[in-house]
Amino acid sequence: MFEYLSATKTDPILGLMAAYRADTREHKIDLGVGVYMDDRGFTPVMKAIKDAENRLVKFENTKSYQGIAGDPEFNQHMLALLFGEDHTVLRSGRIKTLQAPGGSGALRVGAELILRAKKDSRIWVGTPTWPNHIPLLGGAGLRIAEYPYYDIATRKINIDGMLQTLRSVPDGDIVLLHGCCHNPTGADLTHDEWDEITKIALERGFIPYIDTAYQGLGVGLDADAYGIRSMARSLPELIVASSCSKNFGLYRERTGSITFLSETSAKAEIVVGQAMAVARQLYSMPPAHGALLVAMILGDTGLRRSWEQELREVRERIISMRCLLTDRICENDAGVDFNHIRDQRGMFSFLGINASQLKTLRDQFGIYIVSSTRINMAGINSGNIDYLVSSLRSVLK
Ligand SMILES: Cc1ncc(COP(=O)(O)O)c(C=O)c1O
User: Fold this and answer.
1) Domain membership flag for residue 52
2) What is the pLDDT averaged over residues 73-95?
3) At residue 334, does pLDDT exceed 70?
């Protein structure tokens, strides 16, 4: 049977990571991988997570199955984190959350649920978007359509093009939006732009599907949820996939949630039943460990304070690397403008250099960047900034 299989293409990011690992140059820099790194270049376990793990080891008394929807306390805390403690939908009975295996698992459960509701559903994704959106959503069977998002030339969101396309989206289609810290561009919607999209969604009857994988890494936990919270106030239906990989540093523990807002509480009951049937078909039950830690942290004043403080430090480090890089390379001989890097949010931005400059950076200087020129700001640190800037200056000459 296996003779019918042909080899898959190497994922470009995995290929880049392998090349970086094999590179023996001391000054090599990895700006390709999509994980947070501290100033020493490590992806640490957050202190609140370590403390919660120590408590869990002491008090956990069973490894028996948990339900298909995961840990109910985790789900309640995630709802409050995403929507804010006092959001009216939390008391409406219209909203249901399931724990999911990471943001990716959540996205897939959402896609499968959409297909259960309507077989030939279509989802509109921005160009560009996180590359895994296409296999996760399209692989489930959703038809993919695109709206313009980022304009490489102006280094800004092509808001006119985006809104114009959204005004043509038919009733019942789905529109994927990034909650904050857009991956790969770092270009986020303003509050007014969120409000305008909400208005168009109401007029056209499309359903926004918000993917939020970086809450707290942009401006702040509440500010980063503006789009989710304002859309939930106005729209009859909404889907939100969220990930705890970055803001809790729980990458390998596969922790996330999928939330459905329905028009009525009766419909919400049907939706959650169908979503549980999807989960049952795909993986039966989500892994417990990460979700138990998140629930413990969000439910405990001291742990929560420690987590919020560390998350603030993460965010501030990213912002300071954005400012530092912009300040240091803005005055370059080629006159290339990098001011967008200072203004954008989250871990990523497009550097916006050409393919041959990218290749020179990698071959001659050992600086690894994916072909889209997306760079991970957290890959920059006090130990490599001078080398990065001098290398960039020499390729820009
Ligand atoms: C935009 C976006 N959505 C979802 C995810 C999925 O995260 P997870 O690792 O929790 O599956 C990521 C991860 O990089 C992401 O960047």
Assistant:
1) no
2) 97
3) no
